[in-house]
Structures are given as structure tokens and as C-alpha cells.
Amino acid sequence: MKENIMNSSGQPVYQSVANDIKKMIVKGEINPSDILPSENTLAQSYNTSRVTIRKSLRILEQGGFIYSWPGKGYFVSEPEHDVFTLVFNEEGRAHDIAYKNVTVIIPDPEVQKALNFTVPNKAIKICRVIKQDKQPLAFDVKYLPYDKGTPIIETELNYAVFPEIAAAKSAPFAFYTKMEITAELPDDETANILRCEKNVPLLVVTRRFIDQSGKCIGYGKVSMLPSYGALKAHSGYHHDKSAL
User: Fold this and answer.
1) Which of 79, 151, 178, 206 is the most exposed, fewest CB within 10 Å of its CB?
2) What is the DSSP letter of 83?
3) How far apart are CA 194 and CA 219, in angstroms?
4) How many other C-beta atoms are found inside a 10 Å radius of the C-beta of residue 52?
5) CB count, 10 Å around CB of 78?
6) In 10 A of CB 99, how many CB atoms?
7) Alpha-carbon dihedral of residues 90, 92, 96, 97, nearest 10 degrees?
8) Which of the 8 DSSP states describes residue 239?
9) pLDDT tens, 4-59?
10) 211-242 per-position pLDDT tens digit
11) Residue 137, SS3?
12) Strands (E), the chain
């Protein structure tokens, strides 16, 4: 007899089983370090095959709800309440993003160090202002190592976000991001752009894009006024993704 791959609600059986076990974990019916029933037992309980159960367990494992112990089975994971997922959209809630300029400069020592320059070298500096209702909310500055002979296509840079710009110098999956969030007083340029006093602390998000060899292929800072909003993160499983 052919196995049913969809339940009565039209949902794949493996997803339905995963959701059912997830609910038991969330409700505390099974707890961290508890072992799950065997694949055979689960297959019999849900009247399905071991192949389907393996798909369900894979979903739960990828979601961090369970882990496998070879030769012993699947166990409920300990929740990581001190590990957070931060969703950062560099364009935030802006209605208007206006570029100031794209130039080639010899950057200051801070940027040279971030880009791992061993000797003073040139970099591409990309500046833009993030606005809402014509009011500046954030000042975004990006730096890329300047490769002599590589043309700067300003129109392409104008519509690209940072990961896309960095990826143009590397394969998309060949680099990773390091992020820092600090409170800083604005320098003269930032204070002038954001029309704020120099004694007003700004929320600053600094990002470094690093390739697999450890080379920094992009560096950027977004300085945000308090009116720009808040950065939000979550730990572990959460029901309401709209809360981010």
C-alpha cells in the first residue's frame, strides 16, 4: 500500500510530525536531555515510514530543537538563551536613500587597519544618507580596497547593498561578516550630514566582510540617530517573527 505523503489538512506528513514534536518540546512535555522515541516507534505512532520520520527529525535538528547521538538516538537540546539572532537591514525603515559620492581616497589609519593595509593604500569610499520624510536618520560609509585598473561603475554601486558590493570582489559564499555595535559621538562629517550636535551619541553598526583567507574585502559603518529605531534580536525559537 502506498504511503500517504500528505495529511488531511494538505500538509506533508513529515512537516506535520515535526510540528507535533516541536509543540511537545515547547510545552515542556519533553525536556532538554530527554531522549525521543526510536524511529521505528515514531513511525508506528504516526502510521508512517522511517524515511518520513527521518525527514521530520532532520527539520527539528536543523532548527536546534534536537541533536543526534550516534548509536543512542535523538535527544532534546538545551535552549541557548544567551545566543541571539540579529536581523539587520542596512536600509532600515528609510523611505529615501540618497548617495553623497563615490570617491577614491587614502583612508585614515582606522580604515587602513580595518582593511588590513600593511602600507598606506587607496580605497573606494561610498557615502550615502538614509532619510525618512526628507529628514536624515543615518549616515552610511563603506570602504572597499581599490584595485588599480578595475573600473568604478558608480551607477551599479548606487543601487547595491553592502553584501552585493563585497560579493562583486569575491564569490558570494566565499566571505563572512563580523559585526560590532557601539555608541559613539559623531565626527565633524557625520554631525554635519545628520544635522546633530557633536555631543549626541549615535548608534554605530560596524561591519567587516572577510574572505576565507582572512582578508578584509569590505568595511562599513552606519551611524544612526535615536529616531532611526532600534536593533532587535531573538534567542532560540520564537512564534512571532513580526516582532523582529
Assistant:
1) 151
2) -
3) 21
4) 23
5) 12
6) 14
7) -10
8) S
9) 577 667 789 999 999 999 999 989 999 999 999 999 999 999 999 999 999 999 99
10) 878 888 889 999 999 887 677 787 766 554 44
11) strand
12) 66-69, 73-76, 84-86, 96-105, 123-132, 135-145, 175-184, 202-211, 216-224, 233-235
Q: How far apart are CA 47 and CA 109, in angstroms?
A: 66
**Residue 97, amino acid:** I
Instruction: Say if residue 12 is exposed, middle or buried (CB neighbours under 10 Å; 0-12, 13-18, 19+).
Output: middle
Q: Identify the CA nearest to 236 among candidates 52, 96, 13, 26.
A: 26
Q: Residues 136, 130: contact at Cβ < 8 Å? A: yes
Q: Which residue has the cell 513580526?
A: 242
Residue 27's identity, in one-letter code, is K
On whether the pTM is more than 0.70, the answer is no
| DSSP code at position 170 | S
Task: Name the residue among 153, 110, 103 with its Cα closest to residue 124.
Answer: 103
Residue 113 is which amino acid?
K
Contacts of 164 (CB under 8 A, 6+ apart): none
